[in-house]
Design a protein that fits this description.
With 133 residues, this protein is of the alpha+beta class. It is 24% helix and 17% strand.
Length: 133
Amino acid sequence: MMILLTAVSLSISPNSVPFASDTGALQTDSSSHGNHDDDDNDITVPMALCINSKSLYDCLVKLGITQEKRLMVDLMCLRQSYKRREITEIIWIKGPTNPADVMTKDKPCPALQQIIDNNKIKVDVDGWVERMD
């Protein structure tokens, strides 16, 4: 199972940018660490969760449970992040158009080749859930 997070968070390491521990929001003042009282200085980075595991997608969307032990911890962590509003969208992508699929499969992935050749990607989205606030 591979989870591909699409957001600015891909290029941000927790060690280089301070986070507000209870909100998950990036702090714009790099000299401060931890929480601070001025909410105007916090920015939120919307994060879309792109997954290729249909069973994980179904559990997240339908609030179901799983008997697969490998998914239980992932499911709990993702639900917690969604509850904290750290995840704004949940997207299920079919394997052949998922560039992360190459990391778990031994056959060639056309999506990764397309990124390398053209710096563009066409993703076949099969399921989509967007949080409405």
